[in-house]
């Protein structure tokens, strides 16, 4: 029997403008597909993340899948062009945007069952939106003045604070050198210029996972929120990821519950069906 066509959207996350922010493909599955198929489709899209949504019935599956709340719940998996990952912020926003904007859910809250636990996405009314090895890293960031180097506990990345937002924007990454660095990827960040309207700038390079530069990475900002909270003594941030596409994230660090809340906008730029 032929498989049912799989509807998909390509969503640019953390932006209001098409072809900005970070793109993610969102595929809506009505039946299970094997992991090889999921990975092949992600490779075919060949963007930083492709995610797959499968609706979970209220009484379905083992206890950790059974929904005690009244919110609609979906399985959510994320794939880069070369592997599955445990957490992706911008594709989660893209998935939530797809569900809310398509009318597939009537609620303003949706829950995702993921490899990182249950994640909750909430639709915010428009009125509420506000906007190691030091020598090795120094060589990778040749030309930039380094202020501090940290290893993140979220994502196992190297976080490098440089001395100016201009250095973040103008940095020319050496991907061959980044691959040889410890950890998953390299975060470069700095306090934003005083007239920019942002608290900090960042860029994220992850060639080990097939993503030379992630245009806007939500999961990285979980680590950045904690880092800049200690630096700036605050819990709320307006952040700019200074990639070529660029993207804006509004962040709240909930210290009591050890959670990071990310807000962002998204825009659908493509819809279609996969027929194989």
Order of helices and strands: EEHEEEHEEHEEHHEEEHEEEE
Question: What is the oligomeric state here?
Answer: single chain
How many helices in DSSP terms? Answer: 6
Number of strands: 16
CATH architecture of the largest domain: Roll
Work out the helicity level: 10-25%
Instruction: Assign the CATH topology of the largest domain.
Output: Diaminopimelate Epimerase, Chain A, domain 1
Short description:
By secondary structure, this protein is α+β, with helices and mostly antiparallel strands. The chain has 2 domains: 6-127 and 264-274, Roll (Diaminopimelate Epimerase, Chain A, domain 1); 134-262, Diaminopimelate Epimerase, Chain A, domain 1 (Roll), CATH 3.10.310.
């Amino acid at each position: 029997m032929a498989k049912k066509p799989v509807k998909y959207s390509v969503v640019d996350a953390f932006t209001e403008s098409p072809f900005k922010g970070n793109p993610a493909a969102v595929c809506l599955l009505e039946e299970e597909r094997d992991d090889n198929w999921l990975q092949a489709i992600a490779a075919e899209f060949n963007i930083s993340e492709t995610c797959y949504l499968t609706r979970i019935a209220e009484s379905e599956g083992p206890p950790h899948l059974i929904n005690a709340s009244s919110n609609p719940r979906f399985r959510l998996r994320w794939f880069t062009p070369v592997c599955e990952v445990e957490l992706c912020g911008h594709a989660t926003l893209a998935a939530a945007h797809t569900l809310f904007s398509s009318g597939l859910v009537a609620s303003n809250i949706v829950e995702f069952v993921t490899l990182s636990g249950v994640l909750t996405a909430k639709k915010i009314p428009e009125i509420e939106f506000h906007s190691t090895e030091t020598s090795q890293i120094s060589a990778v960031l040749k030309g930039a003045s380094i202020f501090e180097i940290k290893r993140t506990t979220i994502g196992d990345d190297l976080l490098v604070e440089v001395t100016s937002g201009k250095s973040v924007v103008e940095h020319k990454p050496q991907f061959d050198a980044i691959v040889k660095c410890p950890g998953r990827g390299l975060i470069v960040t700095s306090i934003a210029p005083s007239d920019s309207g942002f608290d900090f700038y960042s860029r994220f390079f992850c060639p080990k996972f097939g993503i030379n530069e992630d245009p806007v990475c939500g999961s990285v900002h979980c680590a950045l929120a904690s880092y800049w909270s200690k630096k700036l003594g605050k819990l709320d941030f307006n952040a700019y990821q200074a990639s070529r596409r660029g993207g804006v994230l509004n962040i709240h660090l909930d210290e009591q519950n050890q959670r990071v809340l990310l807000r962002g906008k998204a825009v659908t730029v493509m819809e279609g069906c996969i027929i194989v």
